UniProtKB/TrEMBL annotation:
GO terms for biological process: proteasome assembly. Keywords: Chaperone. The lineage of its organism: Eukaryota, Metazoa, Chordata, Craniata, Vertebrata. InterPro entries: Ump1 (IPR008012). This is POMP protein. It comes from Uria aalge.
Amino acid sequence: NSRGASSLLKDSIPITEFSASGTLEGHDLLRRGFTSVKSELLPCHPLELSEKNFQLNQDKTNFDTLRNIQGLHAPLKLQMEFRAVKQVQRLPFLHSSNIALDTLRGNDECISFEDILNDPSQSEVMGEPHMMMEYKLGLL
């Protein structure tokens, strides 16, 4: 009878989890730092991934439509213009509105969520211009 009880305990509780090098060992903060849980999170809703990639999916659909209508050169030219416009930016401590990119995408006349609630001029953090430039240039 005791043999049956020990086999039940042996089957239900793995012994390796109680060892010092097992999964119950504490995380060493001094050597490994804080653990990041953000990368392990799964989306809460099935549409969350679709919403995160909305602009990418919209651009891909527009490029496919443009290719079917005008040929291969039209989406290639537009992608080249997108890359050129994304490279032009202001200094790191100045807000860039990316009006040229919005104009290429056709969003220049639309008012969206980011236009109202994503205003960097109202943000609480404003860096020192010299330090931000030195950081960008790799001097710090």
